[in-house]
């Protein structure tokens, strides 16, 4: 049985972002290292945090400011849903909740090592109950941000509805899975990491070669501690990473996605959006947890104010890593 609480998106003077996707409760164990198959590792500590790719990205978008953020999500009728909803509401995310009786809220089991790496197993739970008919009216929204932790056919239906409504579609194609050209034709901004890029491109080669295989207007690939690279209308933008001492990288990718789309929704150029998203992701690595680590707009602005300009050497190193040739048009974000 499904119960839905809807919010009608009307009467706002500002840009609105809609995130449709997963929401989980994360069970996090810190340990010296991530266990190998068959290995038991004694952990240092255990904590629960609200998470899920969709919810993390919604919180990141909301904290980025400049755009009112809504989220469409499905939760179980259980205790796990309480902290998930509370975290979203505390970030001023406006919720469109599908309540699923008799099914657990989504959960994720995360091991974080002392060197800040992580391994994650997700039990989708109520997230699989999201259906095409749950999408709210898209009036007033500039962007729809999607991920792949909910049923693929539902995600495709949401993208198709957004395209018909003139809403920009941003897709974080994670977890990686094969995506056909018909679906990708509905996407305006594709955000992937390096392994996801290779999977979607179905190509073994350089970053630049893989990007050229994907026919989406804007494709952004995050490259961890190296930074990120975007191909926008055939031209390349490079943003080296901001150096920090990482504590937990769990929420960094989702922070990047949410802040990027919020910045684009404000009317920023892709270069400016990449810089802001990269700064927010770097700050997210310096704290534990997914949503608890996502920085505020003011914190990101203060961090950026202290950063020196990108050097020619940083730009060159990132360009070389991506396999860009001299005849590729590339510039620093």
Question: Could you characterize the architecture of this molecule?
Answer:
This protein has a single domain (14-33, 44-332), classed as UDP-N-acetylmuramoyl-L-alanine:D-glutamate ligase (3-Layer(aba) Sandwich). 46% of the residues are buried. The chain is built from ten helices and 15 strands. It has 333 residues and is of the alpha/beta class. Helix 8 (270-284) packs across helix 9 (297-305). An eleven-stranded mixed β-sheet has the order 1-6-5-2-9-10-11-12-13-14-15, with helices on both faces. A four-stranded mixed β-sheet has the order 4-3-7-8. It has helices at 53-64, 81-90, 152-165, 181-184, 194-201, 207-212, 252-265, 270-284, 297-305, 312-322, and strands at 2-5, 16-20, 24-31, 43-51, 68-76, 94-100, 106-113, 118-123, 141-146, 168-172, 189-193, 218-222, 227-232, 235-240, 330-332. Helix content is 31%, strand content 28%. Strand 10, helix 4 (181-184) and strand 11 form a beta-alpha-beta unit.
Provide a brief overview of the structure:
It contains 10 helices and 15 strands.
Question: If you compute it from the alpha carbons, what radius of gyration comes out, rounded to the nearest whole angstrom?
Answer: 19 Å
Name of the level-1 CATH class:
Alpha Beta
- N-to-C CA distance: 48 Å
Give the topology string: H per helix, E per strand: EEEEHEHEEEEHEHEHHEEEHHHHE
Round the mean pLDDT to the nearest integer and report it: 92
What would CATH call the architecture? 3-Layer(aba) Sandwich
Number of domains: 1
State the shape: globular
SS elements, strand count = 15
Major β-sheet profile? 11 strands, mixed
Q: Determine the structural class based on helices, strands and strand pairing.
A: alpha/beta
Q: Share of helix among residues?
A: 25-40%
Cross-sheet strand order for the largest sheet: 1-6-5-2-9-10-11-12-13-14-15
Strand fraction: 25-35%
